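Human: My hope is that you can spare some time for a protein that puzzles me. I am handing you a single protein, as its sequence and its fold in token form. Could you go through the record with me and say what the backbone is doing? Take your time, and here it is.
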Amino acid sequence: MNSYELILIFDPNQGEEKIGAFLAKVEEKIKHLGGAIDKVEKWGTRRLSSMIKKAKALTQGHYVLVRFKSPAGAPAELRSYLKVSEHVVRYFVSRAVVMPVPPVRRGAPGMATAPVTAAVDIGEIKGKPLGEPQ
């Protein structure tokens, strides 16, 4: 199963009840397609950066981020479901990228750790001897 992120923009004039009800339908659709919801973040109402053809009069949108895991074919099904929805102004489904966390180097308590990389003179990189005229 792959990790995905779904960003939904709703018309804020619909109200919290309608947005919550449609969001529950989207979660149910993801579960029906064999996925599992990891996290739902409601970002709230924000100003739109540009005009959207589907709703030209809107200047604000209610943003919601849904992180989920599902099989590879589920996002296409989800896109087709959201495409015909009248509640969603705009949506975006993408595969989530998991960034590896670099290991933390720790020394003895109170001791400064040595730097991971040392400064290098450009001449050393190019293979030229240092301190000699060219």
Observations:
- The radius of gyration is 25 Å.
- Helices lie at 16-32, 74-83, 122-126.
- The chain has one domain: 2-95.
- Residues 2-95 form a domain with the Alpha-Beta Plaits fold (CATH 3.30.70.60).
